[in-house]
Design a protein that fits this description.
The protein has 6 helices and 9 strands. The protein has about 240 residues and is α+β, with helices and mostly antiparallel strands. Helix 1 crosses helix 4. It is rod-shaped.
């Protein structure tokens, strides 16, 4: 008789056009049907007879389905589903904005920085190349995790969108004779510390502000930056004032 109830409830749900509600309708009808069966069994009805009487009391499947379809209107159901999804999206957006508010502010600040060109200081070392002009000035020197981080600030003005100035080809030497550079094609590798580049492009990629961070285990007095070979030899020097 349980199978007959399933046939009946399937016929009911077929009349309900808003299909997301069908599972809930089936669950409610099954609960009502089983409660009716138990009530009759408590009155000493045989289980089979109780099931037959309970199913008959549930009514005509098609008529019950039509009545439920009028209650579970498709347009109202889909509108409710859409409202739930919209509300969830709004909650997620608010949470994301709340969590990443600091990151958004930093992104806006950095974007504004990228659109602002700051002229190099008058005392910056300078070299004029075929591709344009390169300026170098010392930046901050600070201790980080037992090491010393020395910043070199570059300003590059090029005449073409694709500059001939390639920062990864630079050699960096300090007053102790240590040389730091990235790996070259001929197998040479950096011998002291390491380099870290941060580039801020300007309009049309014709102006660049770059920061090179040289990490060492001592404080340098000065650093020379050069680009050897290829007929493009040049050297720029940055000096830091002695610590008091």
């Amino acid at each position: 008789m349980r199978d007959e109830f399933q046939i009946w409830v399937d016929a009911v749900c077929e009349q309900v056009r808003f299909w997301p509600d069908r599972k809930g309708i089936e669950k409610e009808l099954r609960i009502h049907y089983e409660d009716h069966c138990r009530a009759l069994e408590r009155l000493n009805y045989e289980p089979k007879l109780a099931a037959e009487r309970s199913l008959r009391a549930m009514g005509n499947a098609q008529e019950v389905g039509w009545a439920l379809d009028r209650i579970h209107k498709p347009w109202l159901g889909w509108l409710w589903k859409f409202s739930e999804g919209t509300l969830l999206m709004l909650v997620l957006i608010v949470l994301w904005l709340t969590v990443s508010a600091g990151g958004v502010e930093q992104l806006i600040f950095r974007t504004r920085q990228q659109l602002e060109w700051t002229d190099p200081p008058a005392w910056a070392d300078h070299v004029s190349l075929e591709c344009g002009d390169v300026y170098l000035a010392p930046g901050e020197v600070r201790e980080t995790g037992g090491n010393v981080e020395a910043e070199l600030r570059f300003w590059v003005k090029v005449r073409e969108p694709v500059p001939d100035f390639q920062p990864w080809e630079l050699e960096v030497a300090d007053n102790r004779g240590a040389v730091s550079f990235r790996e070259w094609g001929d197998g040479r590798r950096q011998t002291s510390g390491y380099l870290e580049w941060e580039r801020v492009p300007y309009w049309g990629w014709t102006r660049h502000q770059m920061t090179l961070r040289l990490i060492l285990d001592y404080r340098p007095d000065w650093v020379e930056v050069s680009a050897p070979g290829g007929g493009r030899d040049w050297v720029l020097r940055a000096e830091w004032e002695e610590e008091p």
